[in-house]
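Q: Sequence in, structure out?
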Amino acid sequence: MSKNNHNRNVSGLLSHATAKSEATAGRIDAAIRTLISQGAPVNFNAIATLAQVSKTTLYNNPNLRARIEHLRRSTSSVPQSAKKRAISDKGKDVILAAKNKRINELEAEVKRLSDILQRCYANEYEKY
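A: Exactly. Output:
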């Protein structure tokens, strides 16, 4: 049995892979710049969506991962808990009104179903 000792021509494959990696890096950089210029939160989900890459790509590249984590910390000036507390009184009133409306609808539905059930029990009782 003889070994094949011929040179493989993989230069085209390597150049394509390099070009593809560079294009992906360019899209990621553009996405980061866009998010920063818009004042939007910089995070893995937003960058992956905007750059049309997977989050795995971002997490597996140590340089990109460190950059995104740094930007995520630096652009998040207001903690999430403070954002949640910032609901205005008007917003709270709207939420309460919607909940009260839903409670009233559910109470009416319970009453309607109770009436139906009561009639069914009466019909069954009359049979005996």
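The chain has two domains: 9-84, 87-128.
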